[in-house]
Automatic annotation (TrEMBL):
One term under GO cellular component: plasma membrane
Encoding gene, per UniProt annotation: nhaA
Keyword vocabulary terms for this entry: Antiport, Cell membrane, Ion transport, Membrane, Sodium, Sodium transport, Transmembrane, Transmembrane helix, Transport
Membrane-topology descriptor: Multi-pass membrane protein
Biological classification of the source: Bacteria, Bacillati, Actinomycetota, Coriobacteriia, Eggerthellales
Natural source organism: Adlercreutzia caecimuris B7
Protein's name in the database: Na(+)/H(+) antiporter NhaA
Reactions performed catalytically: Na(+)(in) + 2 H(+)(out) = Na(+)(out) + 2 H(+)(in)
Length: 532
């Protein structure tokens, strides 16, 4: 049984005096692992930025973010505004997390099985090409704006999956997996677009320095160095070299992610035997009548066990768990606060919403994304390259495709790189914000309508997992209801079947539960695994 906020210590490991602390801490952990909460906080930050931008406080607000921070070491003095620190340094940390997600999917996730990943990968390509076509229809003839074709191609995974998480267990896990894998493939394309098309003229000398630093990181990986500290320290040098080269510095985060080991330095088979011996050794040396501070043998054995157990977790996984709450509850809200500041005061609003940049970005996201995703998905299924995920129909796919039009973070990031003029950036931001809002609402409505149809049939899609891994799929939030719904059926055979399938699948399994008129599950049918 896993700890919950209501029952933080199901195995009664901790003393009674700290149960309240454990309960509060688990609530914090659950909050910071929630895609829905992260999306809500980013949305709130964007709304605050819009309100300030259209109030008398805008000028001092803008001046604050343009405050320069000066750092000097010896003869070297560097300075950067707070806004650039967020966009160039903090967002590099975001891209580091994105890179870790991509590496996970390519090593053990959805992108390892090419046939299984074919549908979202091909759909992502369609979701990039169609917006480019639509944007070019409005801007191809204008050399000042034609370069912004990359703006409507990106999907904001946090917002899209946060919206989907609101539907809970009424949406099949296959939809979440499809959208998350599509967003990962979309991120890969966006990273390539940023690196190739939206950097300055590169400095060959600094590119060479970056290459040398990258080789050093690869050699660390090859030498089986599993401590995070060397990678992070050398990663800072990589960031500086990429920043000085003219290629956008956030690319350094992705490159660093791909050098961090995903394996464990501990032999897991031998660890099982060794840890069992240490547990028995600790049990033999423990004296109940003595204070723990006097039991040196016991503390030494437990400390050894704890030290080695921590090293079982791969460095990439440790870093991902560390970064997730900071990125989604600090970095991205700060980015939204500093970049969603579209001011309508003293400007020609009609000119803003009638500019070719606005039309290209707005219709590229709102129409181009779902059209490209649905068209390429249909062709993929039609030509039998891949099948729809289990329990997923075309209404689900349409809803997921529309949610793909939620561009926000990545789209605003590309807009800042694509346009040199503030007026064009503002036009693009208005298109991004309005299209993302409409795509989020319409996509939610489509999926909600399908969910209501499933509810009328008494169907729930329950995702359950033995893994304790925070994924961006928002699958963990849906999995939180698994135990309650399965146990509510009151059938021990069903509970045993659930646990048997979870152990066999070793990952996330989905159960289609048909409820009675009293909304209580009676049986679990069509048990299928959705992630190996």
């Amino acid at each position: 049984m896993e700890p919950t906020a209501k029952n933080p210590d199901p195995h009664h490991i901790f003393i009674d005096e700290v149960q309240g602390h454990q309960r509060r801490w688990l609530k914090v952990i659950q909050f910071t692992n929630s895609s829905t909460k992260a999306a809500a906080i980013m949305l709130a930050a964007a709304i605050v930025a819009l309100i300030i931008a259209n109030s008398p406080a805008f000028e001092p607000f803008e001046e604050f973010w343009h405050t320069h921070v000066v750092v000097g070491v010896g003869g070297f003095i560097g300075e950067m505004s707070l806004a650039h620190i967020i966009n160039d340094i903090f967002m590099a940390v975001f891209f580091l997390l994105v890179g870790l997600e991509i590496k996970y999917e390519m090593t053990v996730g959805e992108l390892t099985n090419i046939r299984q990943a074919a549908l979202p990968i091909i759909a992502a390509m369609g979701g990039v090409l169609a917006p480019i076509v639509i944007y070019s229809i409005f801007n191809a003839a204008n050399p000042e704006t034609s370069h912004g074709w990359g703006v409507p191609t990106a999907t904001d995974i946090a917002f899209a999956l946060g919206i989907m998480a609101l539907l809970g267990n009424r949406v099949p896990n296959g939809v979440r997996v499809f959208l998350s894998t599509l967003a990962v493939a979309d991120d890969i394309i966006a990273i390539l677009v940023i690196a190739i098309f939206y950097g300055q003229s590169p400095s060959l000398m600094w590119l060479a320095v970056a290459a040398v630093v990258l080789v050093a990181l690869v050699l660390l990986n090859r030498a089986h160095v599993y401590s995070l500290a060397p990678y992070l320290l050398i990663g800072c040098l990589l960031w500086f070299a990429v920043f000085m080269s003219g290629v956008h510095s956030t690319i350094a985060g992705v490159l660093l992610a791909f050098t961090i080991p995903t394996g464990s330095r501990v032999d897991l088979q031998k660890f099982m035997t060794w840890s069992g011996d240490r547990v028995r050794e600790a049990r033999d040396s423990f004296v109940e009548s003595q204070p723990v501070v006097l039991q040196k043998d016991y503390m030494f054995t437990v400390s050894r066990l704890s030290s080695v157990a921590k090293q079982v977790v791969p460095p990439a996984t440790r870093l991902e768990h560390m970064l997730y709450p900071w990125v989604y509850f600090a970095v991205l809200p700060l980015f939204a606060l500093t970049n969603a500041d579209v001011s309508f005061l003293g400007g020609d609003v009609l000119a803003m919403v009638s500019s070719p940049v606005f039309f290209g970005v707005f219709f590229g996201l709102l129409l181009g994304k779902p059209i490209g995703i649905l068209l390429f998905s249909f062709l993929t299924v039609k030509f039998k390259i891949a099948n729809l995920p289990d329990h997923v129909n075309w209404i689900h796919m349409l809803g997921a495709g529309i949610l793909g039009g939620v561009g926000f973070t990545m789209a605003i990031f590309v807009a800042n790189l694509a346009f040199p003029e503030a007026v064009l950036i503002a036009d693009a931001k208005i298109g991004i914000l309005s299209a993302s809002l409409l795509a989020g609402v319409i996509g939610f409505v489509f999926l909600f309508m399908q969910a209501k149809a499933a509810e009328r049939q008494g169907i729930s899609y329950v995702s359950a997992s033995l893994d304790d891994v925070v994924r961006q799929t928002a699958g963990e939030e849906a999995a939180d209801v698994a135990d309650d719904l399965v146990l509510a059926c009151g059938d021990d055979d069903v509970v045993d079947d659930v646990r048997e399938v979870l152990e066999a699948e070793g990952g996330v399994a989905e159960f289609v539960i048909h409820e009675t008129a009293r909304a209580e599950a009676e049986e679990a049918e069509d048990v299928t695994g959705t992630r190996p």
